[in-house]
C-alpha cells in the first residue's frame, strides 16, 4: 500500500472506530451551513435515526453552526466584497455511539465572549428540561437581547433537544488572548 493509501486507510479506520458520521473544520457561512445541513440530514437518515431524533440532531447542528458564524473571533472577510457576509472559523463533528449522537463544535472566542458564554451555559446546566422549555417559550415572545445576533434561542434550542446537560470547556488563552470554546450536546 502506498503512502497516500496508508494515510487514507488509517484515517478511515479512525473514523469507523470513533463512529464519526460528519466532520467539518474551516470557515462557516450561511451557504456552507446550508450545504452541511443537507449532508447531516442524509447521514442521519443513513444511520437509521428516527424522525424526532433526526429533527433534534438537525436543529442542534444548525444552532451550533450559527453560533460559530455569529461568535467566532476568527473572522475572514473577502477582499473587495463588502456586500458579501464575512465567514468565521470553527469546527463541528457528529459521532454515534451505542445509539447516542454527540454533536461537538469548537471555535475561537475572545475573553469577553467566553465569560458571556460561560454564564449562559452554566445557567442552562442548572435548569430542568421543563424550565428550559418555559424559558424557550418566553424568549420566543420577548425582544432580541442586545448582545445577540439571533433571537437568543440557540443554546436554549440545543439544551431543549439534548438528552443530557450541555458540556462545555474553554482552552487556556493563547498568546493573542483568544480561547477556544468547546461545546458538546448529547442527542
Describe this structure in words.
With 187 residues, this protein is α+β, with helices and mostly antiparallel strands. It has a single domain, classed as 2-Layer Sandwich (Heat Shock Protein 90), CATH 3.30.565.10. It has six helices and six strands, in the order H-E-H-H-E-E-E-H-H-H-E-E. Strands 1, 2, 3, 4, 5 and 6 form a six-stranded antiparallel beta sheet that branches. Helix 3 (51-71) runs antiparallel to helix 6 and helix 5 (129-141) runs antiparallel to helix 6 (154-161). The longest helix has 21 residues, at 51-71. The relative contact order is 0.15. InterPro entries: DUF6272. It holds the Pfam family DUF6272.
Q: End-to-end span in angstroms?
A: 39 Å
CATH class: Alpha Beta
Number of strands: 6
Task: Indicate the structural class.
Answer: alpha+beta
* Unreliable stretches covering 5 or more consecutive residues: none
Number of domain units: 1
Sheet having the most strands: 6 strands, antiparallel
The CATH superfamily appears as Histidine kinase-like ATPase, C-terminal domain
In terms of DSSP E residues, the strand content is 15-25%
Instruction: Using the 3D structure, state the CATH architecture.
Output: 2-Layer Sandwich
| Percent helix range | 40-55%
Shape: globular
Radius of gyration: 18 Å
CATH topology: Heat Shock Protein 90
Question: Which whole number gives the mean pLDDT?
Answer: 89
The helix tally amounts to 6
Reading the helices and strands in chain order gives HEHHEEEHHHEE
Amino acid at each position: 500500500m502506498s503512502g497516500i493509501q496508508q494515510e487514507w486507510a488509517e484515517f478511515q479506520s479512525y473514523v469507523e472506530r470513533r463512529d464519526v458520521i460528519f466532520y467539518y473544520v474551516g470557515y462557516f457561512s450561511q451557504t456552507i451551513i446550508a450545504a452541511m445541513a443537507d449532508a447531516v440530514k442524509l447521514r442521519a437518515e443513513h444511520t437509521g435515526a428516527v424522525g424526532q431524533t433526526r429533527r433534534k440532531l438537525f436543529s442542534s447542528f444548525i444552532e451550533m453552526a450559527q453560533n460559530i458564524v455569529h461568535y467566532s473571533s476568527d473572522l475572514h472577510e473577502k477582499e473587495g466584497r463588502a456586500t458579501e457576509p464575512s465567514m468565521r472559523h470553527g469546527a463541528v463533528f457528529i459521532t454515534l455511539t451505542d445509539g447516542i449522537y454527540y454533536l461537538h463544535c469548537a471555535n475561537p472566542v475572545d475573553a469577553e465572549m467566553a465569560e458571556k458564554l460561560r454564564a449562559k451555559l452554566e445557567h442552562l446546566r442548572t435548569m430542568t428540561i421543563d424550565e428550559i422549555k418555559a424559558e424557550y417559550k418566553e424568549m420566543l415572545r420577548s425582544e432580541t437581547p442586545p448582545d445577540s445576533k439571533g433571537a437568543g434561542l440557540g443554546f436554549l434550542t440545543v439544551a431543549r433537544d439534548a438528552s443530557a446537560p450541555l458540556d462545555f470547556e474553554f482552552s487556556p488563552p493563547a498568546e493573542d488572548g483568544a480561547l477556544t470554546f468547546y461545546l458538546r450536546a448529547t442527542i
